[in-house]
Every structure is written in structure tokens, then in C-alpha cells.
Amino acid sequence: MSSSPVPKRVKTSPPLIGTHNGHFHADEALAVYLIRLLPAYTPSTLLRTRDPSLLSTCHTVVDVGGEYDPPSNRYDHHQRTFNTTFPSRNTKLSSAGLVYFHFGRAIIAQRTGLPPDAKDVDILWHKLYRDFIEAIDANDNGIPVYAPADTAALTKRFNDAGVTLSSLVSDLNNDFSISAPPSTEAETATTDGTVQHPQAEEDARFLAASELMGTSFLRKLTGYHSSWLPARSTVLAAYESRFQDDAQGRLLVFREPTPWKDHLYTFESSPSPSSPDTSSPTSPSNDADATKSQQQQQQQVLYVLYPESASPSAKWRVQAVPLNKESFESRKPLPEAWRGLRDEELSARSGVPGCVFVHASGFIGGNVGEEGAREMARRALEM
Which is nearest to 342 in space by CA: 319, 317, 363, 367? Predict the structure, then answer.
């Protein structure tokens, strides 16, 4: 009796990813992490060098080599002729943006379980670029957030440069264990007789930077998928029905706690809020749409009402809408006469039963129930 031979498993080497050695930045740290999320690169090995002959052996090269050629998996952005940007954005891409531009949708679909061609994948792809990747691209390409002329007369109140992800990655370039330059290949003897290889130690710090950038990206993706994206339809429904709560559409009411800020500003700036926000706002298609858009801008939401939790007995909040997403200043703070007061004193001053508090800045207040919160908002609108 004969038996068929067991087929031998073909052994293949894991893909070799190349990037430069020496001083590293946030963009290639993230680019390497993103590539390694793809099934085709699991597992993969990493080579950090500037030697062209060694880079030529790599399956994929990022941030070095002077070549941008997706078919051959080359993703550098340092060429004088390079000017590629993300759709509907003006910031020149770095290696992080390039990798995200080509593989971001696949990564999002893989991590979320969404179909690759789903509309939500495209929404998340644009959202993550605008809110996370673009700042990394700009930082690496030396593009300031504001035009220099716009900030010439401004003085910073404190230094916040040390708390950005890019600065934390930069800190990891500092090697406090050896005195040799980070890029040297020489071996260094330690006090206990062991031998350190400076390039291997530098590579370990690069991998720590890559982990920092990559896990930060994944936390953003998880949050946007599990919280921000589901909230979009909730906020849209409340936004489109806001005139039922106030004739001028100044109140936004939710039945449960909802992350509303980002979506509200998007809907207010869009002539068609129900359309996916996958690009820069477009111009109204006709005069009627233009008039509607202008009316919406004049009828901005001033207060947002919501329960503190999903419990039926939850207290309610009245929150003033900030001037913009980053602002601590409100469009219309709660009345100054209410600020800093609590409980019975606040109820007596406002004339609204069940008041709990109003913050000293007027950006938020509370009531024991929905109707009390609505009455606080209605009275605040008229003051």
C-alpha cells in the first residue's frame, strides 16, 4: 500500500522593512508600526541603515532612499520633487502620511472588522488623518500650525512643546547608558564586563518610539470606532430636530451622555450635515442651499442638555457650547448671577426648582431633572 508524500511547507523569509538609522522621528516610528499591523508583514524584521546596498535588499523602505514608488514599496518624502498630499488637505505627507495614505483603509478595516469598502471605513480614514496623522506630517516637514504673521504679536503663557508625541519620541533619542554617539557601530564595554552594541541599543529605543506612536494611533482608532462613529448618527438626529426644542435651534438635547462636540462643529459648518464628512466642506449647490447654510450659521447651538448617566434617575446637565473645539470660552456662558451657586441658593436666584450647581466660569450647570435643565437653558437664553 502506497501513500502520498506529505508536501513540504515552503519556507519564506519574513519581509524586511528598512528605514534610516541615527536620529529618529515620530513619522517613521509610526510608519513602521502601521506597516507591521498588516497581515503581510506579520511577522517582519527591521533594518535601520542608510547604506543603499543594504536598503536595496529590503522588501519595503520608509523615510529613506530618496524614492517614492508604491509598486516597489518605497515610501520616502525627502525628494525635492515630492509634493503629495492627502485628499482635500494641503499638508505635504511624511513617511507616516504616505504609509497611512496607501494602507490606512486596510488597517482600519482589519482592526474594526468593518468591510474594506464600507462607508464608515472611509469616514474613519479621513477622520484619523485630520485629527492625528496630519500633525505628524506637518511637524516632520516643518509646517507651522499658524502662519508666522498671524502669531507675530502673540506671547505664549507657558511652554507646551514638551508634551507632544513628537517631543516624547525625540526624547527617546537620548541614550544615557553609553557615551558613544548613537549611530556608531563600535562595541562598548560596560562595567560588568558585558558588551553593548550601540546600534542595537539605538534600535531598541526606536522600537520603543514606534510602540508609543502606534499604540497612540490604535487608541484613537478604537475610540473613534467605538464611540465617535456611533455618536455621529445620534448627534445628527438631535441636530436636525433642534428646532423642536427652541424656535431658533439654540438647544441640543440628548437622551443619554454623548460625545457631541466634534460632530456639532462639523454639522454646523456643513451645508449638508447628513452627508459623510470625508472632505473639506463644499460650496452650496444652489442659492436655496446657500441661504439655508447662512441661516444655520446664524442659529448656532448655544446649550447642550443631557443626563449624567443612562439611569432613569440621573441628574441632568446644561453645558454651554465652546467657541470652537479647542476653546475654553463659551458662545454664551450661563448667567453670571448664577455662577458659583449651588442647590437652594441657586434655585432661588434663578427661579428654577431643583438646581444643583453652576460652575464659576458658567460653562456648565446641573439640575435634578430634565425639565429643570430645560428651564435653566430657556431662562439663560433670554438673559
Answer: 367
Indicate the helix (H) or strand (E) that contains 86: none
Cell of 103: 494602507
* 341 three-state secondary structure: coil
Condensed to tens digits (0 to 9), the pLDDT of residues 126-169 reads 999 999 999 999 999 999 998 888 888 888 888 888 889 999 99
- Report which of 204, 213, 214, 212 is spatially closest to residue 21, judged by C-alpha positions: 204
Unique residue bearing C-alpha cell 502620511: 97
Q: Are 176 and 164 in contact (CB under 8 A)?
A: no
Would you list the DSSP string of 248-265? Answer: TS-EEE-SS----HHHHH
Cβ burial, residue 27 (10 Å; 0-12/13-18/19+): buried
Mean pLDDT of 309-338: 94
Per DSSP, the residues of 32-62 read: HHHHHHSGGGSS-EEEE---HHHHTT-SEEE
Degrees, nearest 5: CA angle 224-229-232: 135
How far is residue 256's CA from residue 310's CA, in Å, rounded to a whole number?
A: 6
pLDDT digits (tens, 9 = 90+) for 170-221: 999 998 765 444 444 444 444 444 555 789 999 999 999 999 999 999 999 9
Question: What's the rounded Cα separation, in Å, for the pair 239 and 241?
Answer: 5
Report the predicted TM-score, pTM, of the whole model to 2 decimal places.
Answer: 0.75
CB–CB of 169/117 below 8 Å?
no
Half-sphere exposure of 180 (CA within 13 A, CB side): 18
Instruction: Tell me the per-residue pLDDT of 275-285, one tens digit each, with 9 for 90 and over.
Output: 555 444 333 34
Q: What is the separation of C-alpha 291 from the centre of its chain, rounded to a whole number of angstroms? A: 33
Q: E-assigned strands of 232-369? A: 251-253, 303-307, 316-320, 355-358, 364-367
Contact between 216 and 96 under an 8 Å Cβ cutoff? The reply is: no
Three cell numbers, residue 118? 464600507
